[in-house]
Design goal:
By secondary structure, the protein is α+β, with helices and mostly antiparallel strands. Helices cover about 35% and strands about 20% of the residues. Strands 1-2-3-4 form a 4-stranded antiparallel sheet, with helices on both faces. A 3-stranded antiparallel sheet has the order 5-6-7. Strands 8-9 form a two-stranded antiparallel ribbon. The longest helix has 17 residues.
């Protein structure tokens, strides 16, 4: 009965704070590993605060969530006086869908790492997640990648050198030529 009362008050509190949720049916569940914390299906985290001299918790407070450099939302939750950093998208999936299957990770289906709605999240393999990132243009490739080594002109020059070398020598040994090209462009032969 106390839980029903809390859920009713949570919904009232959220609709008072933000009118765009008035017409939205929102699920609220208790976070599994943390007592006194709840999460909504859209990724908002609430804390159950206890007032002094009252045996039952009576106040619900929406916690502030911060954005990491990657765009993912994170939050610090307390358990036994120790702070634990948790990613909000993982909390949403673990609470509403279930624990993460082995070898899988969280996928944002729309490519927006800030959208933590349960309808936008799904467990998937790293390969599926990387494909999603590439399809949505989130994964930086080529010159947009922070660790790029070659410009498009460098790639064209290297390919041209490789074609000329192939014409001259049919049987290329794995040494000399590629190592020299790599040294000139400041990359490893494997690149």
């Amino acid at each position: 009965q106390n839980i029903k009362y809390l859920y009713r008050n949570i919904r009232k509190m959220l609709t008072k704070q933000d009118n765009r949720y008035n017409n939205t049916i929102m699920d609220i569940k208790k976070i599994n590993e943390f007592d006194d914390y709840f999460i909504t299906s859209d990724g908002r985290v609430l804390s159950l605060a206890k007032r002094a001299n009252r045996p039952k918790p009576t106040v619900m407070k929406e916690l502030s969530i911060w954005t990491m450099k990657s765009g993912h939302k994170a939050i610090h939750l307390q358990k036994c006086g120790v702070s634990h950093k948790r990613l909000v998208h993982r909390l949403v999936l673990e609470t509403f869908v279930g624990p993460c299957p082995e070898g899988q990770e969280c996928r944002h289906l729309d490519g927006n790492s800030g959208n933590n709605s349960v309808s936008n999240l799904k467990w998937g393999t790293r390969k599926e997640n990387r494909r999603d990132m590439r399809d949505h243009g989130v994964q930086p490739l080529g010159l947009k990648h922070w660790n790029h080594k070659l410009t498009p002109n460098d790639v064209i020059k290297i390919r041209k050198i490789g074609k000329e070398r192939n014409k001259k020598v049919r049987n290329i040994d794995s040494g000399g030529g590629y190592k020299e090209i790599a040294k000139v462009f400041g990359i490893s032969p494997g690149n």
